[in-house]
Write a structure and sequence with these properties.
The protein is mainly α. It has helices at residues 2-13, 21-47, 49-59, 70-81, 90-118, 124-154, 165-175, 186-214, 216-219, 234-251, 253-263, 272-279, and strands spanning 220-222, 230-232.
Length: 283
């Protein structure tokens, strides 16, 4: 019979002869990478949570802190609300990180294939377009959590409108027009992603090219894949990425302020048009 003949062949080929183990290992690796990225993101966001809350309070001109600067607000928050006041809204951010990362990761792969197949574009432009579209997709899907986070972070002790994440979801849904209420400020968010991604990508590429051209021995090292190609050293790569991100964030910052004010709805009732009129002194 055929079965007794196949069994010895399979046994001789060893445990790696079957196909299932490879996908299983691949899936496990993806899960490990996703979990590691999510945990790292949670740690990073928790570390900068105090500065992030101060930014929200000052962007939207909270009446208790609008007359203060960054340093003064960092001192005033623990005095008024305790040190845990720095972490208001951080829970919603922690919940948002994992679905945001998963959606962005999967969407990037799909958009990359689609762009290459339909438009025939590859290289840096290909990755930039796919990355921007994946980022927009992830933002749209997880935007309600960002909305809730901002509402919770804007609250000051003794003036709580929302008691927690679930209560904030219920209140916004019932009092602000259902699902559309969760998407206040989405347009400036999406519009702001284009200059942010563009300037970040351009600045990083420029710094990398200039650095490797003028100081290859100091800033560069051979690539693992191709020793003939120079890449930036790890610390230089981080430095260039930080500078590029700071420049891109500065350029797109007015739209970020618009988004925050619109997300807060009745607290600071601005539309994109009204805020930009004020920002450009067109009143």
């Amino acid at each position: 019979m055929a079965a007794p003949q196949v069994a010895p062949a399979a046994a001789a080929a060893g445990p790696s002869a079957g196909l299932p183990p490879t996908p299983a290992r691949g899936d496990f690796y993806w899960l490990r990478s996703f979990a590691a990225g999510g945990v790292a993101g949670c740690c990073a966001k928790t570390t900068i949570a105090p500065l992030d809350r101060v930014k929200i309070l000052l962007q939207a001109h909270n009446r208790h802190y609008k007359h203060l600067g960054v340093i003064a607000t960092l001192r005033a928050v623990p005095q008024k609300e305790g040190y845990l006041g720095f972490y208001k809204g951080n829970g919603a951010m922690m919940i948002r990180i994992f679905p945001y990362g998963a959606i962005q990761f999967m969407a990037f792969d799909q958009y990359k294939k689609l762009i290459k197949k339909e438009l025939g574009i590859s290289g840096h432009v290909h990755r930039l377009m796919a990355g921007s579209m994946a980022g927009i997709t992830a933002v749209i899907c997880t935007y309600p959590l960002d909305m809730v986070r901002v509402r919770l972070a804007f609250q000051v002790k003794g003036e709580h409108k929302y008691t927690g994440i679930i209560h904030a979801f219920k209140t916004i849904y019932t009092k602000e027009g259902g699902l559309p209420g969760f998407y206040r400020g989405l347009i400036p968010t999406i519009v702001g992603m284009a200059p942010y991604a563009g300037f970040s990508f351009f600045t990083f590429g420029t710094l990398k090219s200039v650095g490797l051209a003028h100081a290859p021995d100091l800033l560069g090292k051979p690539s693992f894949d191709n020793p003939d190609v120079l890449v930036l050293k790890t610390y230089v790569n981080l430095l260039c990425g930080g500078i590029a991100g700071a420049i891109a964030q500065t350029i797109s910052y007015p739209l970020d302020v618009t988004r925050r004010r619109m997300q807060l709805g009745a607290a600071v009732a601005f539309t994109t048009y009204e805020f930009m009129k004020q920002f450009l002194h067109l009143n």
